[in-house]
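Hi X.,

You mentioned you wanted examples for the new student's onboarding notes, showing what a folding record looks like when two proteins sit in one file. Here is a clean example. The first protein comes first, with its sequence line followed by its structure tokens.
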Amino acid sequence: MSLTGLGQMLHHAFIIHALLAGSAIAAVCGLAGYFLVLRGQVFAGDALGHVAYTGAMGALAAGLDLHAGLFATTIAAGVALGAGSARITDDVAIGSFFSWMLGLGVLFLTYYTTHGSGANGTANVNVLFGSIFGINVSATTTAVLLSAGLAVVLIVIGRPLLFATVDPAVAQAVGVPTRWLGAVFLGVVGATVAEASQIIGALLVLGLFAAPAAAAMRLTDRPWRAFWLAPVLAVAAIWVGVTLAYLIPAAPASFTIMITAAAIYLIAAIITRRERTSAQTASSDH
């Protein structure tokens, strides 16, 4: 692909839609991902990705709208998981819930495949791996508006949520509703997963939650700087990933986006390791 061809990339409507919708979702994933990593709830974010798949398949098997199944199940599951613990949801509880949801998803998939997949035969793959290049104007507008709303919620609850995460005992003692905050936060994560599943896929959304946020936390030890850096890195993963998918037609966009997100974390790890080594060397010289 020549530089001239690359320059034509933004002339395609499907690329514009992919970048707008993808960037909006990535920004929210970065904001939410910071707290998922900080609170040790990355596994919960992964579980909600599988809940999204089960909800979508269940809705289709019942003859309902796929989006209704996505949002209803992920938000309900997120609130339930968040309400179950004031700080960090028990991994055993999540693992048990996760296994049950996977089994239920297989049941719905089997029923949908044998009874109704002819009506929407690509739904299974689209929910699992997303369809970022299949986003139309309506879906793009929905993604941007919904992401903006979710981002506002995260920003509003950000300060008390950080307090409840860093020192939950003191936060609860001074009247911070730690359990309520946890439920709202994972409810927002659930809604983010539901929307992201349609763009990058339920199985891959964890990459946008974890990698940019973890990279941001490596690059700075200041909480709010990392909180704002995480969405910037997540959006960068979308732009680089979409560009690579455009340049390499054989490479799926979800793959290139996830590879870019992983590369961002790797680069951040290398940078911090070199800085730490340099600091140790300078200290030993003195």
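Then the second protein repeats the pattern, sequence line and then tokens:
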Amino acid sequence: MMQDRLFVYGTLMRGFDHPMAKLLSRSADFIGEARCQGRLYLVKHYPGLVLSDDRNEVVFGELYRLRAADELLREFDMYEACGEGFAEPTEYVRRLLTVTRDRQTPGEAWTYVYNWPVARLPQIASGRFLER
């Protein structure tokens, strides 16, 4: 079965007045706040998540259960300009990663990982896009 969880940490979160955030809110069930290991960078007006092995580096976001996972992931792949048909290296790549919710067993969810160099990007030290 296709993994039906999606972890979002930027402009797809609740409260953003963006067509793709609205698509997510009406096509998925909000599970709750979640986090993953990684570092968050401010790319432009949106963030980029880079995975990390350091347990002290955490990115906070939201976890959703996609009702029609295959269709929605294709839509989000197009929005993030990644996957089949896009020139490599794409800005983002969709990956399964481990996410954790408070007092819950960690589980896997899809997310979009930033795939370009971050050396000149400002890091969002809090790991929370809304606190940039």
